[in-house]
Amino acid sequence: MECISVFDMLKIGVGPSSSHTLGPWRAAERWIKELKQSGKFDKVESITVDLYGSLSLTGKGHATDYAVMLGLSGCDPESIPTNDIKTVVSSIKTKKELNFNNEKNLPFDSTTQIIFNRKFLPFHSNGMRFSATINGRKSKSFYYSIGGGFVVKEELKNSKRNFEIKCSFPYPIEKGTELLQFCKILNKPISDVVLENEKSIRSENDIDFELKRIWDTMLECMYTGCHTEGNLPGGLNVRRRAFDLHKSLQGDNSYNNRLEWIYAIRNTEVKFRQIIKWVSCFALAVNEVNASLGRVVTAPTNGSAGVIPSVLMYYLVIENHDGNFEDIKRFLLVAGEIGSIFKKGATISAAMGGCQAEIGVSAAMAAGALCELLGGSPEQVLVAAEIAMEHHLGLTCDPIGGLVQIPCIERNAMGAIKAINAAELALDTNPEHVKVPLDKVVSTMWETAQDMSTKYKETSEGGLAVGVHLTDC
């Protein structure tokens, strides 16, 4: 059975897209590693990268070419200072030279050596080919970015069964019914079952350290987005809204850092309208950072990175002023497990399933996680996840200009609000009366994805992407 850790579903990286930015970046790193393992790296004379299908059609707007150059240069998406990204890329373009893995300089002209091919490869919509010239001969490798920063190779024939991490969980879970069985057998909530699986591959101290790092990145992302004004890059001239919204909500409350900020928000007015605005503000903030090549956490993708942190922040500043790391830990464990069920049974790639695979899955993850924190049973947690996805089925991916901005940023706010509503509905639901179980909505989502026109799968060939033009903006 495919073994997907919480830390596979929640990964720290750079925006704007997990499949179009982080995936190609990781593919470049993986190619370099394989060249080294085969003893070919030192013999490489030149390199070429071909991008296919969705990676080509929306690659410019998703900074896929940037990601490839950064990956080939040996930069790490988790640690590179985001202010250095444009400097590194500009240097490569100006000098027409790339420091391959930061070890050897190679001639490199990004206009001719990164090739955008509209052709779709049969294996997956997000295909790429890395080629190296060695002693005058070409060495080629194909990779596919299948969503959420996951990368697979062509020779493994089924992308839904193609995974990098090899492990054996004590409680293997592929479906919601299996998760509930383990909860019943162990008499534990979902978060504890997931924790037991995680403890089989890393220590609890390491788990806590990584979860804190993920939450710190989420919190920093929200904080940065709420305190940065101006327009987003890319040509649409989209004005950042989180700054103005935050300013109107925060009022005169003062603070000096992220922790004080949380306490300051708790002191603000929290009527219904303000709650909706706060949740939206947090979600907008994250995805405005994402749209500007900032550091975010894939949750489960970059395009949907704002839903989970905004719902968790809602819990901490609205629902439970005594919330602590244990609550954050439980929330992220449950969210990661729900996301893995969707990845195993359907897809988290918009290029394969449309936006239902991104915002829909992230809303399901957040709804289930919030439901457990609010006292929901394991059965109610899965009801919450099902409700959230049920009302995202068929959601298309039609980014204007190939940019993760319109309608992507607002969709995170909408997904977060739906997630909270889904959790509340689930808490007042008797699971025995539910007609659509989580596993059924997962399979329905996959069927919907297969039936959906390619125009609405992150190609910018349909919907808003053709109804609104850059010149209109």
Structure description:
The chain has helices at 6-9, 18-37, 54-57, 64-72, 85-95, 110-113, 176-186, 190-199, 204-226, 242-250, 258-266, 272-291, 307-319, 325-345, 350-353, 359-373, 378-390, 408-427, 438-451, 464-467, and strands at 11-14, 44-52, 97-100, 104-107, 114-117, 127-134, 137-145, 151-153, 295-298. 50% of the residues lie in helices and 10% in strands. Residues 157-165 have low confidence and may be disordered. It is built from 20 helices and 9 strands. It starts with 5 loop residues before the first helix and ends in a 6-residue tail after the last helix. α8 (190-199) packs across α14 (325-345), α10 (242-250) runs antiparallel to α12 (272-291) and α12 (272-291) runs antiparallel to α13. The protein has a 5-stranded mixed sheet with strand order 5-2-6-7-8. A two-stranded antiparallel ribbon has the order 1-9. It is of the alpha+beta class and 473 residues long.
